Amino acid sequence: MNRTCAALLVAALLLTGCADDRTGTLGPAPTLPVPASTTGPAAPATPTAPIATGTSAAGPVRSGPATAGPTPVGPVPASTAPTGAAPAGTVTVQLWLVRDGRLAPVTRTRPQTPATSALALDELAAGPSAAEASTALTTLVPEGVRMVRISGGTATVAAPPALTDGPAGTVRLRRAQLVWTLTQFPAVRRVDLGDGRGPTSRADYADLLPPIVVTGPAIGQRVGSPVTVTGSAQVFEATVSVRVLDRDRHVIGAGFTTATCGTGCRGDYRVAVRYRLAATGQGTVEVYEVSARDGSRINVVAVPVVLASAE
Q1: What residues of the chain score a pLDDT lower than 70?
Q2: How confident is the model at residue 196, as a pLDDT?
Q3: Number of alpha carbons in the 13 Å side-chain half-sphere of residue 46
Q4: Which of 3, 65, 89, 105 is the most buried (most CB within 10 A)?
């Protein structure tokens, strides 16, 4: 009996010495796939003679002449187009300009300064660039608006009498530009314009946003495939559609996504749309809503950009 036990013990020890080392980690967690709801197939385009080919989330899309849409804007000089990340020693601020009686955001990259709020006010009064003005953007803010202090989440500014000149609707849009621009800074939640109305916040002017707001890409920006489109929207069933058009307004890429909130409320959206283009050139990113009534494109926001070549 004792000899049998000893033999079994020796065999067990030998097997243990040959066993694999299983004390390592299990490796990285698997990457989750992109939810199917974030993108979708593009609407079919009308076939024509051989032209550039685009892509959507569902695969290649033949491009054809674009159907009726917003009036094309003028060209954006490639040499002056922003290219994405701001260079060192600079600061980028967001300005809220006006188009068709609604607010619309643009960005400015300028040399770094500790007085970023004052920079934003000066740029807001200076108004749109030539490329931005070609998309019907303007500013109602007069020169001379100055920052007084920021305390307890409230920015207090001093404004010239021109702030309250004009019809009530114009004055309200002007105030909204200032409030939405200054509240981009984390320390500012409300703005007191010194006109006796007391501090106001973005919520007081939320009705002045258009159904679709595009925060990226910026007007004139050089983009590549896939181009990332971001913003907020209040549209039917939260569905936001995107088309990428070449200089001849042929559709070279398309897709759609859903905002974080549906009909009756505003939500954020983000979607990456692939396109194909033989040579770098002018183009347009169109963001729009598909009409539930007749399937047409409505609430279109057209952003002129420089499209990098992509195969």
Answers
A1: 1-86
A2: 86
A3: 7
A4: 105
What pLDDT sits at residue 76?
32
Residue entry with tokens 């759609």: 256
> Domains (ranges, CATH) in the chain?
37-73+218-307 (2.60.40.2550), 87-208 (no CATH)
Closest CA to 311 of 277, 263, 270: 277
Please give the model's pTM, rounded to 2 decimal places.
0.73
* pLDDT on residue 36: 31
SS3 labels along the chain: CHHHHHHHHHHHHHHHHCCCCCCCCCCCCCCCCCCHHHCCCCCCCCCCCCCCEEEECCEEEECCECCCCCCCCCCCCHHHCCCCCCCCCEEEEEEEEEECCEEEEEEEEEECCCCHHHHHHHHHHHCCCHHHHCCCCECCCCCCCEEEEEECCEEEEECCHHHHCCCHHHHHHHHHHHHHHHCCCCCCCEEECCCCCCCECHHHHHHHCCCEEEEECCCCCEECCCEEEEEEECCHHHEEEEEEEECCCEEEEEEEEECCCCCCCCEEEEEEECCCECCCEEEEEEEEEECCCCCCEEEEEEEEEEECCEC
| Separation between Cα atoms, residue 174 and residue 195, nearest integer Å | 13
Cα 144 to chain centroid, rounded: 30
Let me know how long the chain is: 311
Model pLDDT, residue 293: 95
The answer to whether the beta carbons of residues 285 and 242 sit under 8 Å apart is: yes
In whole angstroms, give the CA distance from residue 310 to residue 223: 10
Could you tell me the two tokens for 68?
């009726």
C-alpha span between 236 and 140 (Å, rounded): 31
